[in-house]
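Consider this pair:
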Amino acid sequence: MPSSETLFAFGSETLGVAGIGAAVAVAVIASTQAAIKKTRQTLMHSGAPWMQAAGLTFGVQLGNWPTWLGIACLLVSAGLHVFLVRGAPAGPQLRWLNGTAAACCAAASASLLVPGLSLLFVALVVVASLLCGIALLWASHHADTLDVARIDPLTLVANRRLLDELAERALAAARRTQSPLTLLLLDFDDFRRVNETAGHDAADAMLAISARRMCDALRGHDVVGRIDGDRFALLLTHGGGLEQTDQVIERIRKAVELPVMHEGTAMFPRVSIGSAQYPADGEHLPDLILGADGRLGKDKSRRRAMPDPMHAVVG
């Protein structure tokens, strides 16, 4: 196994210190981004360089325990990069960067077991750290681009494009695991009256606040998206039976129909909701949308016949 004397003989002490510094710098930047965005990808991008820095630190020390700890840290870092390859949203470039970083970490851990390869070990970890930093910058830039292209700017939920992608992905998972999936369509009753009475700014505020309430009423793995205007789609990725779906609908309705205040104006939103379940109502997204839209129309007709003690807008 390599020793500190071997490292110094190859003149790699400076390279080792630089590698540790590079890995720590990437880790600090990644941790900052992870604290801001709190996504699985940023957390993994944060953990990988910390493991590389620890692996390099342990690897250049004397003794069997530090060496094996270095190998373990590098293998953990390689595993994190492999998971990032599988979940990378930015296409082949990001997958190549993470794949190469994983290979470098695995090769570095193997080189620790061979005497005389100290310089190669340090160089591999340095390269892995640099690739990790490039992958982090690439993923951050791509995430910002995705935010602009796939997030509705008013409500900050998924737009129609992202919603379609997530729905198709969820349907594929449901087919693979034979698990249920529920699609809800929701729109606001007499939304035009809110626009005419309170103004467009108040109507936009009502939509934004209502979207946040929908997100709060659902579980973390469910999806809320704005299709257009005052119509939203909610994807219950671990949907249960009809009884559980009815409970979720009532919970959403109660949350959204709380009064909304905007610049001294109280608004009382009312919503109609229709549901469709995979596979009972269809196995493809258009079929589920059609089924949910039909039930949405029935719910709207039923609620139109109900007395409304409150107007949509009260000054």
Remarks:
- Residues 160-314 form a domain with the Alpha-Beta Plaits fold (CATH 3.30.70.270).
- The chain has two domains: 4-149, 160-314.
- The chain has a mean pLDDT of 78.
- Strands lie at 181-188, 223-228, 231-236, 260-262, 265-267, 271-278, 313-314.
